[in-house]
Amino acid sequence: MQNEECRMQNAETFQVQEFNVLQKACHSAIAGGSAFHLRSKSFRLRQGYGGQVGGQAGGKNSAFCILHSAFSSAFTLIELLVAVALLGMAMAMTFTTFYSVAKAWQRGTAMADDLDHGEYVMQQIACGLRSSFFPPSSAATASPTGTSNDVPATPISGGGYGFVLEDHGNGVGARDIISWVKTGTALLRVNDPLYKGLHRVRLSVENDGDAGAAVAVRAWRPYANSITFDPLEIVPHFVSGKVVGLDCRVAKQMEGDKWDWMDTWENEATNCLPLAVEVTLYLEPLDRNEPPVEIRRTIEIPLGPWSWNGVLKI
Q1: Which one of 3, 85, 220, 297 counts the least CB within 10 Å of its CB?
Q2: What is the pLDDT of residues 6-46, one digit of tens each?
Q3: Do the beta carbons of residue 265 and residue 166 sit within 8 Å?
Q4: Which regions of the chain does DSSP assign to beta strands (E)?
């Protein structure tokens, strides 16, 4: 019995010493600020002899060590604040990048849509001007000489087949009106019977009800009309609702290698065709505070020189 008691006393002494070593290591780790993780042996110590060896004091010390060890292994308040700040910065950068890409994609789509409408309208106008008609003059007996840009001093009247330009401002706010006689299907409605013969077209920018400004086209025969005929009574055909402005300039001669542009087409010039027409379309801006999108093209009229000479070369 005495040997057994001695053996148990020695075992208890050894366990107490081991527990004291673990407890000192726990407090040292907490004081140094490092994380200390108790192994399974510490839990066995708490369960096995927390109440047997040290009694209540041993149980309290064991619980105190484990409690402090659990807190020392978690995140501190500063670490949490830094983590939240870094997460917020990453989310802000991600959102900013996504917003920029989405905005650029929307602007690109809107720009492509505007340019598509503008190019369609410009192509229709260019085709219509190139297909301008001017009747041959029976009074002229000589062919034009020199280059195609030479213009005589006095034009020969073309009657009701001349070019008309009504100037209504310059730049972004311009809403000029042009009219000429042509052939073909350009600027006409689908299956419009006028395409089979000569017809005069009147091109302007007007309000299309709720759609706002749009390119309006009126077409009629240049002959066999009643005395009371008024082309403005014709219901217009709206080509595009994206155009908010139309600015036109005309030229009947060149100075050097450049056209001599004019904003007006008056007097005897209205009986003839210009040699070239500069058409500028102003499309709806992408944003309210931005200027309209501008598309400009110079269109040469093949029959322009002949309208001034009165000779149609065959």
Answers
A1: 3
A2: 666 666 665 666 556 556 665 565 555 444 444 444 444 44
A3: no
A4: 164-166, 177-182, 199-207, 213-220, 237-240, 243-251, 254-255, 258-259, 276-283, 293-300
Q: Coil, strand or helix: which one is 97?
A: helix
Residue 85 resides in a domain? no
Looking at the structure, do residues 46 and 142 belong to the same domain, yes or no? no
State the residue range of the domain holding 41. 2-72
In a domain, 102, yes or no: no
How many residues comprise the chain? 314
Torsion angle of the four alpha carbons 166, 243, 130, 180, in this order, in degrees rounded to the nearest 10: -30
Are the CB atoms for 271 and 162 separated by under 8 Å? yes
Q: In whole angstroms, what is the distance from residue 276 CA to residue 261 CA?
A: 9
Q: At what angle do helices 2-32 and 55-72 cross, to 10 degrees?
A: 30
- The 3-state DSSP composition of the chain as helix, strand, coil percent (nearest 5) reads 45, 20, 35
pLDDT in tens, 172-205: 889 999 999 999 999 999 899 999 999 999 999 9
